[in-house]
């Protein structure tokens, strides 16, 4: 059985946990989120997307 979880959901959970345990402040979390939106509108967006896709495609093969 394959379980599919959107990466954005996992990152959102990570941010919530970091905020809850005070590992990062709210201002820093907002700054990182805004940086992500601005990064998505640059030429680096395609490269970042391909890198994340390659990493998520490689994860299932790690346990073999």
Write up what this structure looks like:
There is one protein chain. This protein is 73% helix and 0% strand. It is mostly helical and 64 residues long. The longest helix is centred in the C-terminal third of the chain and has 19 residues. It is flat and about 40 Å long. It starts with 6 loop residues before the first helix and ends with a helix.
List low-confidence stretches: none
Largest sheet: none
Derived from helix and strand composition plus strand pairing, the structural class reads mainly alpha
Residue share in helix: over 70%
**Mean pLDDT across all amino acids:** 88
Q: Report how far the terminal alpha carbons are from each other.
A: 16 Å
Q: How much of the sequence is in beta strands?
A: under 5%
Any idea what the shape is? flat
> What's the number of extended β-strand segments?
0
How many separate helices? Answer: 3
Oligomer: single chain
Order of helices and strands: HHH
Radius of gyration: 14 Å
Ordered list of secondary-structure elements with their pairings:
Blueprint: H1 7-20, H2 26-39, H3 44-62
Short description:
The chain has 64 residues and is an all-alpha fold. The chain has helices at 7-20, 26-39, 44-62. It is flat and about 40 Å long.
Features:
64 residues; mainly alpha; 3 helices; flat
């Amino acid at each position: 059985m394959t379980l599919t979880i959107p990466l954005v959901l996992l990152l959102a959970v990570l941010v919530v946990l970091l905020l809850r345990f005070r590992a990062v402040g709210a201002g820093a979390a907002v700054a990182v989120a805004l940086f992500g939106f601005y990064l998505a509108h640059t030429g680096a967006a395609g490269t970042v997307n391909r890198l994340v896709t390659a990493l998520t495609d490689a994860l299932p093969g790690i346990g073999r």
